[in-house]
Amino acid sequence: MLNMSDIMETITMIQEENLDIRTITMGISLIDCADSDIEKSCEKVYNKIYSHAKDLVKTGESIEKKYGIPIVNKRIAVTPISMLAGVSGGDPIKYAKTLDRVAHDVGVNFIGGYSALVQKGFSAGDRELIASIPRALAETELVCSSVNVGSTKAGINMDAVKIMGETVRQTAELTKDRQCIGAAKLVVFCNAVEDNPFMAGAFHGVGEADCVISVGVSGPGVVRSVLSKMPADAPINVVAEAIKKTAFKITRIGQLAGREAADMLGVEFGIVDLSLAPTPAVGDSVAHILEEIGLEQCGAHGTTAALAMLNDAVKKGGVMASSSVGGLSGAFIPVSEDAGMIAAARNGVLSIEKLEAMTAVCSVGLDMIVIPGDTTSEVISAIIADEAAIGMVNSKTTAVRVIPAIGLKEGEELDFGGLLGYGPVMPLRSQSPAKMINRGGRIPAPLQSLKN
After folding, report:
1. Are 46 and 98 in contact (CB under 8 A)?
2. In whole angstroms, what is the distance from residue 429 CA to residue 285 CA?
């Protein structure tokens, strides 16, 4: 039986507390599109994606109307394109433009998978694809790119880390007339997962089914609202329990929508990713949750502990609600997409060093951070290496998505608009890591990799 109080609570979550399904993402395998002729391969890619995803947007809109739950984004993730490029040879940009064309034709917001997995070395197609990333992101609108440079099992490919520092900078330079937007669509991972529905890092792993629907649910405003009604002296374990129960309810909503979308489209249901993914909108901030827990401002001492508790409670609530929880599932801290983070960075309370510490206990990593336009590629590579080390040693996914604001200096601001938001240019250490980065090679896997 439906409980009227539960119904009213859900309505309040949607109408007043910014609860939404952040994305329904269709994952599509392109393994059967590989061909030694790149033109034929691109044709197969277009046809397969279009045939599976042509009704994705319409399905999402139908579910929105039926349940009254906003579905903000409809997206596609595909097999890492470097695998196809390794078979076909030729200019990988052709794949990027094919992905962009089909994404426009089916009406989705983004398509991810212009990716390479090089944690232990480069195979056929990897170097060519990575070299093409700056042009690919400059010459397309909806394509997103990711490169996995490390893992707990493999260690960190420092040759790839060096290349990716150069790639991030080149991508920003090629899109400097558009707020350096290319770098906002490029993520560098350690321990990337195969079923992540969130951009820019989504790709469809080779271990996945041929076509699946996965859902990313987000509700920072709901969690903050629940905490705002609790007594100021409530013990932390009681606060954690309240977050866990709220995450349970949010996950159930996501699973309902995801399974219905999969049934309507005739494909398998993948996972629910319960990630507290913020937006610049007022009341939709992870930083404000941390402040509701008891911090004067996000970035103060105690921030990492509060975030660790929040992340753990979110995961526990999601696992209680569904047997299909996957992806990243936790709390995201993208600076330019979070009103509270933006304010803390402006005030100088939130530094990149504090953000790095926070990434040890939350879902992803250094995300949507605007850095000075004159930052060298070696410094960017060093940031990537630091973050990959946290992921490698702690057996968790970490990532770097930094945007060199070409032509801007510390304290100025870059405005992307929409969900990507805006943010101040954050200061970095000026001392050079160039000697270390230029060594190349590979950081060996840690001892905890030997688990068999």
Report:
1. yes
2. 27
- Lookup result for tokens 């984004």: 73
E strand or H helix at 437 = helix 434-439
Give me 291's structure tokens: 């402040």
pTM of this prediction? 0.92
Average pLDDT, the chain: 91
DSSP 8-state assignment for residue 331: B
First to last CA, the chain: 47
For 19-48, the pLDDT digits (tens) are: 678 889 999 999 999 999 999 999 999 999
Query: How many CA within 13 A on the CB side of residue 132?
Result: 25
Number of H helices, E strands in the chain: 15, 13
Place of tokens 């859902």: 215
107 Cβ contact partners less than 8 Å away, ≥ 6 residues apart:
56, 57, 74
Euclidean distance between CA atoms 217 and 72, whole angstroms: 10
Q: Parallel, antiparallel, or unpaired for β 143-151 and 186-190?
A: parallel
Long-range contacts of 114-117 (CB under 8 A, 24+ apart): 114/81, 114/143, 114/144, 114/145, 114/146, 115/80, 115/81, 115/82, 115/145, 115/146, 115/147, 115/148, 115/203, 116/80, 116/81, 116/82, 116/147, 116/148, 117/80, 117/82, 117/147, 117/148, 117/192
- 235: helix, strand or coil: coil
Tokens in use for 449? Answer: 């990799």
